[in-house]
Amino acid sequence: MMDSHTAMSFTHRFNQLLVAVLPLVPRPIVKAISSSYVAGETMDEMLTCVAKLNALGARCTIDLLGEYITHMDQAHETARAYHTIVEQLAKKGLDANVSVKPTALGLLMDGNTCHQLIEGIVAKAASTPIDGKAPLVRLDMEHSDCTTPTIHLYLTLRQQFTNVGIVLQAYMRRTLGDVRHMCSQLAGAGGAHFRLCKGIYVEPRTIAFKDKDTINKNYVLVLEEMLKQGAFVGIATHDERLVWEACRLLDEYKVPKDKYEFQMLLGVDEAMRDMILGWGHPLRIYVPYGKDWYGYCTRRLKENPTVAGHVFNATMRKWFPWVFHAA
Ligand SMILES: Cc1cc2nc3c(=O)[nH]c(=O)nc-3n(C[C@H](O)[C@H](O)[C@H](O)COP(=O)(O)OP(=O)(O)OC[C@H]3O[C@@H](n4cnc5c(N)ncnc54)[C@H](O)[C@@H]3O)c2cc1C
């Protein structure tokens, strides 16, 4: 029998091996696997996917793939594409907002231009209501170099707009303090609009918790603080223990439905998605799409090999269900 440490180290090495062999896997196979997690390459494919999810009762948020840029022209192009996405969502009357990666708009290359481009997207969304409501522009949170500039960007944009939100990561040691700081800055200005996730980038132990149980404890601590502060929270997780903890807190604090939603990634744990919807909770699906699907998938897996293990398991279960049902 393997002890838990040996099992974890074996799983880690297996996940690293999956990432290492990825370049050898033919693209059509990678595409077949990633098709569960990416809505497609084109705007039409994305709109069709959103319409299907809306019909199931789920809201969506759209992520245009392609965050690593080498030139600000790419940032301008991405900003223009987001304007078109906002227009199309409104034209089709779809229940969706957008998520942007600040680095895709130049956060670490040219902060001022990045600010202007994101301000332009937020202003476009503010003037393009869907069902009478301006869609939210959510600032995704990236690796730790981006945390302080993204928070600064968020607080600056909030002086002008209410349809903008931010993501915080429970694995960051600073997050509880960031929540308190942002909530105090935005008290009386409609409050903060958060998405809380565990965090996907590999960060050093000095700034981020590494132990899974501690990350989960911090997730619950931060979530409770956000709810106590009266902020809106997008509870972004597929971890059933955290979903349970969130339901407990929502009940304890009697949080109204316009102050929270669950959030999940496209294609991940659809059984959990259907249960959450069935319990009557608002739920939003994160829908990535775009031509850069291959770069997106391979980068994500390299950044965090654990995801490779999740994807491998989910794919095996989908393609060979009888093996797992027999066990
Ligand atoms: C809506 C949404 C937005 C996000 N935005 C950000 C962001 O801005 N910044 C950031 O750093 N991170 C973001 N993340 C990612 C997040 O930080 C986690 O890395 C990811 O959600 C996995 O954490 P978990 O809470 O689901 O728990 P885990 O313990 O990692 O996963 C729980 C279970 O979910 C399943 N699972 C999880 N991920 C996958 C997957 N990719 N494929 C297949 N199965 C999977 C597995 O069965 C796993 O056992 C986002 C996540 C969501 C849901």
Please provide a written account of the structure.
The protein folds into 2 domains: 13-35 and 296-318, no CATH class; 39-289, TIM Barrel, CATH 3.20.20.220. It has 13 helices and 8 strands. The protein has helices at residues 4-21, 27-34, 43-55, 72-92, 111-126, 147-158, 175-186, 212-228, 240-252, 270-278, 293-303, 305-319, 321-326; strands at 59-64, 96-100, 137-139, 164-169, 193-197, 232-236, 260-265, 283-289. Strands 1-2-3-4-5-6-7-8 form an 8-stranded parallel beta barrel, surrounded by 7 helices. Helix 6 (147-158) links the parallel strand 3 (137-139) and strand 4 (164-169). Helix 1 packs across helix 12. The two termini are 19 Å apart. 36% of the residues are buried. It binds flavin-adenine dinucleotide. Flavin-adenine dinucleotide (FAD) is lined by residues 140-141, 167, 169, 197-201, 236-239, 263-265, 268-269, 286, 307, 310-311, 314.
Radius of gyration, CA atoms, in whole angstroms: 19 Å
Count of helices?
Answer: 13
- The ordered string of helix (H) and strand (E) elements is HHHEHEHEHEHEHEHEHEHHH
Tally of separate domains? 2
Mean model confidence by pLDDT = 91
Low-confidence parts lasting 5 or more residues at pLDDT below 50? Answer: none
- Quick one: overall form? globular
Structural class: alpha/beta
CATH class descriptor name of the largest domain: Alpha Beta
Strand order of the largest sheet: 1-2-3-4-5-6-7-8
Q: Which CATH architecture of the largest domain?
A: Alpha-Beta Barrel
* Main sheet attributes: strand count, strand direction, barrel closure: 8 strands, parallel, barrel
